[in-house]
Amino acid sequence: MIRNLLIVNAAVVLAATLVAGAAEPELVKARDGSGVYGYTDTPIQPWSGFHVHDPNRPAPRRVKVSPAVEKAAPPPSDAVVLFDGKDLDKWQKSDWKVVDGLLEAGNGELTTQESFGDCQIHLEWMTPVDFKGPWYNQGNNGVSLFGIYEIQIFDSYNEKIYPDGMAGAIYGQTPPLVNACLPPGVWQSFDILFTAPVFEGDKLVRPARVTVLHNGVVVQHHQEIYGEAVHRALPAYKQKISKGPLALSGHGCPVRFRNVWVRPLP
After folding, report:
1. Terminus-to-terminus CA distance in the chain, angstroms?
2. Were 225 and a residue from 25, 60, 208, 233 both cysteine, which residue would form a disulfide, CB within 3.0 to 4.6 Å?
3. Which domains does the chain have, with CATH numbers?
4. Within 10 Å of residue 131's Cβ, how many Cβ atoms?
5. Cα(133)–Cα(127) distance, rounded to whole angstroms?
6. How many Å apart are CA 131 and CA 118, to the nearest integer?
7. What is the pTM of this model?
């Protein structure tokens, strides 16, 4: 079983930088005056022509969507229910907790006991209202496939973070097709169809791909994943695995979850 697979993200990198006493990377604003912030001293992505976390990358347009229903719908009969409002028995030990029948994020990753390959994932999440934290932790969380490929959760209703770091992005790689985010305090949903990468020995034969629906709207359409999620760097397939756990990436922001299930696909 793969354990403790951590995605290197803004919160972790900045915390390590401050501890080491080094200068914090400089944030810059987009040239178009939109207020989007990011970095322009990072590598250029070969597939897009933009810097990693580039504020000048076109920001996805906002679309109006409906929140998740007040009462979560029951999962399919063949789903592996990872959280049903009662306990964390399907997950490895962590400082995450159950509060009022909801899963509340702590620090570090919450990782499943079971591993999956190709799969369908459903979960519902809510960012906290009036959370007082740094820019990089405004609703910051994520769905971490195999613990290494991250679909970002963030308060992109309010925050103008770089497009490849906003809600629904494949972190550090591909922005969502549209911004389908709802305000903090409102239930939102992710439906994810994940195709695992295929390797022959150390050779990548077929990259991972993902389709993501955010609040019922397609934000990633059979999109190639270019490697493991990293902050301020280009991704790469370092771990040659085609099966792994599902993880949720906590950074001390009390994002809440409910109705979390997965269906392994043949």
Report:
1. 20
2. 208
3. 10-264 (2.60.120.560)
4. 15
5. 12
6. 35
7. 0.90
